[in-house]
Amino acid sequence: MTITAKYASKCPHCGQTIQPGEQVEWTRGTPAAHTRCPAAAPVAAPARRPGLVSAAEVIARRKAMVRRRRGGGSFLDDGDWEY
Ligand SMILES: [Zn+2]
């Protein structure tokens, strides 16, 4: 169950100090542990392979490119630039 720590203690998972007032996961007879313990957190998603770009990302990149062109105003040599 989740309780508010009343005493300072040490998290059995990560070894970090638990301060009084922190939310901890505790079961009678076991030491209190962080409710969101960094040691118990799921492993971060593996890095995406380079070159593998999602469709949403392509659209976002295109929008960013357009924004740069509109905002900059320095693309005077660009044929389709009209303002
Ligand atoms: Zn912990």
Describe the protein's architecture and organization.
By secondary structure, the protein is of the alpha+beta class. It has 2 domains: 2-34, no CATH class; 52-83. Helices cover 22% and strands 14% of the residues. The protein has 1 helix and 5 strands, in the order E-E-E-E-E-H. The chain has one helix at 55-72; strands at residues 2-4, 9-10, 17-18, 23-25, 33-34. It has a 3-stranded antiparallel β-sheet, with no helix packed on it. Strands 2-3 form a two-stranded antiparallel ribbon. A hairpin with a 6-residue loop joins strand 2 and strand 3 (17-18). The protein is elongated and about 70 Å long. The termini are far apart. The mean pLDDT is 80. Bound molecules: zinc ion. The site of zinc ion has 8 residues, from strand 5.
The domain tally reads 2
Total strand segments: 5
Radius of gyration: 26 Å
Q: Spell out the helices and strands N to C.
A: EEEEEH
Counting DSSP H or I runs of 4 or more residues, the number of helices is 1
- Quick one: overall form? elongated
Bound molecules: zinc ion
Distance between the termini: 62 Å
Structural class: alpha+beta
Largest sheet: 3 strands, antiparallel
Mean pLDDT: 80
| Beta fraction | 5-15%
Helix content: 10-25%
List segments where confidence is low: pLDDT < 50 over at least 5 consecutive residues.
none
Q: Which strand order does the major sheet show?
A: 1-4-5
